């Protein structure tokens, strides 16, 4: 047998012996949760000097939740946004901390009573209903547009809706407005990366 034919016969067992060097086979090794660091965003609509609505991105733990987006709206613009001429005609919360919207009673699983000082949102297909608490008082037309555009933008995140989103806004003072997000600036626009 020639030396060139013997070489593969000698190399194959050596490679096999090296590949089985006593390391046991293992299954899948868990290494923690999925990658993180990318914030989920929603649009909140504020008013620029002169009355034009402007969409501002906000980080949220609940993208697609219109109630959570309205909670962010109620916090108002940041100091920096205010210095850039943004304001809100929607009355804010009496505290600086966001008030979480209760989802369900932890013991019974029954829907929880909504917080008294925040709007409640119900969703049916592509129609949202916002019920305003009495503490908000009567709202201007611009304030109602802020609510409509903010709630509809959050709904779009959850549903990827292409058509208009209809929003009913009702207050205890008899105000009722039914409108869509057709006139909202940046309607359906993709939010920028944080």
Notes on the protein architecture:
This protein has helices at 3-19, 66-74, 79-83, 141-159; strands spanning 41-48, 53-59, 86-87, 120-124, 127-132, 166-171, 176-180. The protein has 194 residues and is α+β, with helices and mostly antiparallel strands. Helix 2 packs antiparallel against helix 4 (141-159). Residues 95-104, 111-115 and 189-194 have low confidence and may be disordered. It has a four-stranded mixed sheet with strand order 4-5-6-7, with helices on one face. Strands 2-1-3 form a three-stranded antiparallel sheet.
Radius of gyration: 28 Å
Helix percent reads 25-40%
Major sheet: size, sense and barrel closure? 4 strands, mixed
Shape: globular
**SSE string, helix = H, strand = E?**
HEEHHEEEHEE
Proportion of residues in β-strands = 15-25%
Please count the helical segments. 4
Q: Spans with pLDDT under 50 lasting ≥5 residues?
A: 95-104, 111-115, 189-194
**What class, by secondary structure content?**
alpha+beta
* Strand order, sheet with most strands: 4-5-6-7
Task: Write down the overall mean pLDDT.
Answer: 77
Kindly state the number of beta strands. Answer: 7
Which assembly state applies to the chains in this document? single chain
Terminus-to-terminus distance: 69 Å
